[in-house]
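To: structure subgroup
Subject: Chain for Friday's discussion

All,

I'm putting the inputs and outputs inline so they're searchable in the archive.
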Amino acid sequence: MNSRPRVKICCIKSPAEAALAIAAGASALGLVSAMPSGPGVISEASIASIAATVPPPIATFLLTSQHSPSAIIAQQRACRTNTLQLCDHLSPEVYPILRAALPGIALVQVVHVSGPESVEYAIAAAAHVDALLLDSGNLSLPVKQLGGTGRAHDWSLSRCIRDSISIPIFLAGGLRPDNVAEAIATVQPFGLDLCSGVRTNDNLDAAKLHAFFAAILSATV
C-alpha cells in the first residue's frame, strides 16, 4: 500500500471554491497573487478574505513571485495566510529574513523540475524551508512560467529529489485522475498539488474533484 498523500487545491478564487475543495478532502488551498503568467491570480484583498474563512487545520498557501524579503513580508501580512509558497528561485540570504519577520509561517519553495540541475537546487533549498513543491514551470522563458502549466515533468527527477532530502515534498504539474496512481507510486510524495486538473471553464468542478480523490483512494488502499 502506498501512503495516502495530502492534497492541495490551487488557484482558489472565492470562499465558495475554498469550501468546495475542503469538503472534497483538501488539506491545503493555494491562493495566487500577481504572477508573470499562469492561471488563478486574484487580488491580495481577495486572498485575505478567502483565507479568513478557512478553518484550521487547513493550510492556506500564498503563492508569491516576489524576490525581495520586504515585498514578501508585506504580502503575507496583508494576506494573512499560514504558508508562503515561494514560486521563483530566491537568494539563500532571503530565507532567514523571512523566518525572523514571520514566525510561525511555513515556507515552501517551488522547484521547477527541468533537469539534473533542479535536483541540485532542491537539495540546496531544502536546508532553508519546511517543504518543497516540485512543479513544471520554466524560468528561462522571456515571460517566466512559475506554475499552472497543466503539464507533467520527469517524475524520476522528482523521485530523486524526494530520496535526497528529509523534508516533505508536494508534487505538482499535470496531475489527473488517470495518472495520479502512477505519480504516487513513482514519487511517493507527501502531498499532491493541482489546479487545472479539477477545473472546467476556469471554475472549480465538484465532479472532477471527487474523481481525483476517488483515484487517490483507489491507488492507496
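Points worth raising on Friday:
The mean pLDDT is 91.
Strands lie at 6-9, 28-32, 59-64, 83-86, 106-112, 131-135, 169-172, 191-194, 199-200, 203-204.

D.
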